[in-house]
């Protein structure tokens, strides 16, 4: 493998996304012949014991406890930011100034201004940048994009998406960082609906205006981070206000005339990761649900009358996006492969010195929309989207 | 059958709903032992040839061409109103004044004022009244109601409903009465979303405030009613503006704290009659789709961890609402049975002199919400619901 | 309606099938313009109180307690046989000799010899005859037949069918007539698999040879018919041997080279009426399941690579068989409509003096196959099918 | 990672299974903390160029072209056999004699005698042995096993399985090794139904007797291996007879009284990898389909009447087998994870010096059943299973 260009990764963060990204770097050369080889150089975390353990398990060559030291190092080509949202801006700008390529978890920042600053920094530095909206990289979604681009659905009239989870419904579930506005900016909005907005922009186009509604069903929660997984609850603790949304809904108008309806919640009992969308056009429709992510439902008006109906396409054929890399048709892939495909595009961007999609421009625009939804929800009226 | 009380029906209208109601009256005594027997006394339509034909095919004893004459007749106990929406108010008030029991198609009227007048008229007259929101009478929906009432879903957090059709997507489809505001009041709003609103009120409770969005994708259409079915298109005609909505969306807050997201469209390609809903509560969730109407999806938090998942309940067991009347478990019923069940409740109401649900009060409240959605869509802000 | 030819029905049997047939006769003229009107002349049952009650509820003009008297009557055109299987042969032959048209419930008889005698009798008498394999009359099945005839599936390689029920799994469920060989001939074989065999012959063609396996899981059951429904169990009774099959499986070869796999059981816990089939051909495949009977799953090889997948066709469009008669597309029909469609073909047969399908020839051939499966199961080897 | 026991793998074969196993060894320590680390020591293939390329892509430290040399080497702890079936016996016996642990692809051998010799060899050598029936390692299947063991389904009455593929339906598809009896022993029988038999033995228990039916739809095919994928066809070639089965079906009786129906085919148009099963017991049922492999359908009799139905369980919770190792609930895994889980059990077997399941005993018993099905198919009668 000596002929491959080595790209040395420095990753900040080592939990859920740290695991997903680490795995993707490891598996990438196994599945794709890219002429590039990611090297798991250094993993960074503040807690030395934890990051040491994670770095060993996930196969990193070394670890650090200070992200600033990482950025100063010359043996690092890429900074991978998987930390809580409130830290993105500082790390990303420093990394850009140090000339590192950057991949950043979503949402890009706490707010529009931060995102804009980050965008300007990477543009000024001329580094490759990407934001990790991984659901774009489901083959069924990429194939949907191709179908829409090829005009198979005709003019798009409707986009509707729901992203439903249920992991914080227990009132005893504590005020983890994902429930604190100062750390994450918003709740289900930035965590879940941000994905749907990215898919909407990817598949349908730019959004012109929005109006939103936000709700926090459980107003107070016990303090303290979870230990040992997300499913337990804590009792006998002091309580604090929840200042992010448990649920959010939004209506939107797209520039091309389509209308959109979005909903995200962490109170959708029974929906573990119910990320679904449907698009209706003048000539056809698609439906997709992350819980059976390999399947794209496709309806085509051109089908013979009597034989019209939604087809269940198992997007694992060699003709499907990224399909050749994996297994024979019908042998499904899973959640982690969205990150392998995403890293494929990121590494290819580095190799060819071309920004992949979605990049910080997309991250910024997404943030503009998130902020508009939040403002409209509090103002009770529609907000124009201005980039 | 001579021991049964005969209830003599006079039906105004003989097309889609005329057929559905006629069939329901005929089949009712076959399936239910109610101690009542609807008599298909007279069918009314303006076109003599057509109404004669329809009345014979559907088994009516006679026909009339003037609905006023029908209302004057003493041999009529019930007026069944299945005409276009703009005629409901006049007929219903006249019928009430004549002391007839009334069942009226939905939406009840063109606007809140009409609906209120109708409600006052039936209340004053002391007649039995009902509005034909037939989807309440799907056994799966009635069973969902029971589960919610029994507390199986706990506190309700979310109601989401989509009602998607695709029958007017051809730009050559003409400006039939369902596309004219003066005749029907609104488009997908009153035709489709009205059903979802009725289901929301039935299953979750009263709505407190709403904000809506409406869209007309095809702005002009050829004049002229369809001949020979709804699927053909007309060409070479003069065109006129479409003044009702092709699609509508709304967000809502319920009095009990739940949030609602509604969407209805006639531009949902591939969805022939896609009437779906999902409700999430603190202890469980349900999902339902009219295209497989016998199935209720139920998730219960109380299920053993590891064995949790949405159950597909085929609501055809004898323990299910109306289940005993039909066939053995697993032998499904269809669209028309919603009307048989509805007529069961209507006739029982007459027999026991008790207003069934949904009645004109429900029709009026529904209309208030429809009007609020329309106003909020044009004002771009939330509207309080005041009955 | 005076211009329509009246066909006077005499029905023997008044339980499950009596209800289904009665309803079909009543609804037939409502949905179809056939130029014929079935008259519910007389219903026959041995128990006077019960048959009187059923005849009134189901809308019959009169009742009898002796089927021989019915057959002698001149005001009867059709004999409808819905009694237990062991009575079919005597009634049918007597009815044929009296010149009555005959529709008989399935399976046609207790064995091949009886079925052959019945076939000869109707042929000799020149009356119209039909056997009530109602699942042929699901629109999705009729449409599948058309697709196969049109060559859309190419050469047929595979037919597989399961018919799974679960209503006798309680060991306390008594030895009702459907569990006694002298009354019904066989268990799940004649009750359930007979339907799958009929569908196989209809859709694929004649069967050349079979081998079967039969099993009775509960060897003894309490004596006594059920009172008050099928779901209760009886205790403290004397027990007797069950001499019919609880479950049966069979492998088959068709004359056209296709292979078939059949399975039927009354021990398929959770399957209330799980009547399913799949057919694979060189150019396409279909799947169908009675529990969502309106849906035909269709796979076509000719679809563009990448867009291939099973389509869910809701066979309620006007282009689908019998579709025009009912409701707009997407408004589903149910179990009872299979009988309305069947009676449509039967009445049309009478009107045009042409035998409909399936008729006694089909009933006889089905019986030959049932007997071959039973013999092969006891001999442990393949049996040729010889008509 | 220096504290982990290193297990040095020598893999023979580098195509579909070589890729799947290589990936599993690589990912194993990423997901599981086993105290063991597989080292991808050497990959073997006859064609030097190809094996070099594959070994580099899949991350092997070296390659060989002669499997005998591999077995002689002292730096190899495990022999992984992923070659065509006719080579298994010689390699496995030599590896056992050399004291290597062995994992062998399925089916274990060409016939019962070979399999027995292999089993004796590993038992004599005292090495750890496993056969790669990977579908056992789908979490939903492992969970089904647990449910059955816990008695949740009660007494088992029915096992039915279909394994349907469609990749050789083009008559121009050439006579690859999987279509040659001398190389693979049988066609769909050993390739596909062998998996269903393994699942049946795992979930239900031992089989007592079987009867089979085999069919070859395309009798002659062009000679020559495929180049560049499996989807193209070859023309203008000389033809030879196909001597293995395109399709096979079997009926079976289990020792515990359950009955089984099996079907496998490569002519199931539209089914890419349709590996499905259903089990019915006295207290519940399960359904599973590999194309949505994470979902287990579960029906429980103990559910409240009215709320009974098949549940769709997404077996990705931490309480599900292997669930803790991967992603949060609802984030699905795919085909390749079956091999990671399998290697987990294999490595744990080596670590604890305990044979995992399924091992060569299972491989042998499976082979006995395969041979019995083949013999019964040609004899046209039932065969007893004797181990």
TrEMBL record, chains A, B, C, D:
Pfam families: GFO_IDH_MocA, GFO_IDH_MocA_C3
Entry keywords, A to Z: Oxidoreductase
GFO/IDH/MocA-like oxidoreductase domain ranges (all copies): 141-287
InterPro entries, A to Z: Gfo/Idh/MocA-like_OxRdtase_N, Gfo/Idh/MocA_oxidrdct_glycsds, GFO_IDH_MocA-like_dom, NAD(P)-bd_dom_sf
Superkingdom, taxonomy of origin: Bacteria
Gfo/Idh/MocA-like oxidoreductase N-terminal domain residues: 7-133
PANTHER family: BCDNA.GH03377 (PTHR43818:SF11)
The protein's name: Gfo/Idh/MocA family oxidoreductase
């Amino acid at each position: 493998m000596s002929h491959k260009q080595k790209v040395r990764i420095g990753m900040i963060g080592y939990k859920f996304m740290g695991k997903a990204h680490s795995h993707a770097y490891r598996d990438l050369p196994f599945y794709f012949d890219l002429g590039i080889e990611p090297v798991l150089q250094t993993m960074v975390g503040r807690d030395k014991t934890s990051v040491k353990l994670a770095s060993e398990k996930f196969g990193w060559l070394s670890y650090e406890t200070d992200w600033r030291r990482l950025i100063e190092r010359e043996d690092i080509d890429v900074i991978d930011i998987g930390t809580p949202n409130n830290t993105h801006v500082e790390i990303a700008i420093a990394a850009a100034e140090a000339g590192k390529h950057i991949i950043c978890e979503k949402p890009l920042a706490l707010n529009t201004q931060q995102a804009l600053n980050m965008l300007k920094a990477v543009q000024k530095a001329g580094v490759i940048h990407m934001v990790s909206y991984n659901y774009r990289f489901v083959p069924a979604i990429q194939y949907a994009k191709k179908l829409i681009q090829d005009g198979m659905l005709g003019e798009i009239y409707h986009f509707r998406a729901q992203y439903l989870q249920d992991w914080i419904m227990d009132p005893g579930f504590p005020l983890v960082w994902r429930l604190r506005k100062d750390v994450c900016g918003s709740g289900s909005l930035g965590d879940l609906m941000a994905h749907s907005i990215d898919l909407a922009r990817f598949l349908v186009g730019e959004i012109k205006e929005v109006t939103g509604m936000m709700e926090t069903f459980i107003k107070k929660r016990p303090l303290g981070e979870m230990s040992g997984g997300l499913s337990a609850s804590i009792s006998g603790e002091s309580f604090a206000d929840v200042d992010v949304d448990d649920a959010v809904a939004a209506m939107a108008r797209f520039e091309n005339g389509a209308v959109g309806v979005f909903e995200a919640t962490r109170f959708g009992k029974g929906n573990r990761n119910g990320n679904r969308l449907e698009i209706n056009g003048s000539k056809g429709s698609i439906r997709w649900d992350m819980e059976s992510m390999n399947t794209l439902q496709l309806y085509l008006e051109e089908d013979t009358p009597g034989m019209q109906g939604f087809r269940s396409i198992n997007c694992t054929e060699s003709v499907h996006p990224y399909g050749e890399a994996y297994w024979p048709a019908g042998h499904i892939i899973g959640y982690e492969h969205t990150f392998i495909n995403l890293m494929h595009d990121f590494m290819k961007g580095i190799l060819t010195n071309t920004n992949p999609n979605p990049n910080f421009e997309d991250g910024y625009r997404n943030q503009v929309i998130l902020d508009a939804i939040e403002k409209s929800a509090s103002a009770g009226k529609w907000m124009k989207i201005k980039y």
